[in-house]
Amino acid sequence: xxxxxxxxxxxxxxxxxxxxxxxxxxxxxxxxxxxxxxxxxxxxxxxxxxxxxxxxxxxxxxxxxxxxxxxxxxxxxxxxxxxxxxxxxxxxxxxxxxxxxxxxxxxxxxxxxxxxxxxxxxxxxxxxxxxxxxxxxxxx
Length: 140
What we know:
By secondary structure, this protein is mainly beta. 10% of the residues lie in helices and 29% in strands.
């Protein structure tokens, strides 16, 4: 697990509050979560790329998205060269692996070891932490 200390995008909390919605701020900056089956992308099936909602860093491709039944967008692997860091999370009486954006330090969700082949991983990500770019709009 990485121990990210100095993200590339470094804004004050006031700057983040001005650029993020209140829900995005609560999740990305305060490590919150959205309720299951309520986020914009939990059942999203279009082809494209999911980027960090705070800084635009590449995170996941639609090819790795799957229906885990958990109510949050789930991916079995990050995109090639994705800006993802993992950290030990002992909050809420659980031991989990938190996933953050390496570029800005934003909280994305958690990764679990109950996903499908080929990785066996399930990146469980908050919709408010990501932004979708359709394949047709992606800059090559």
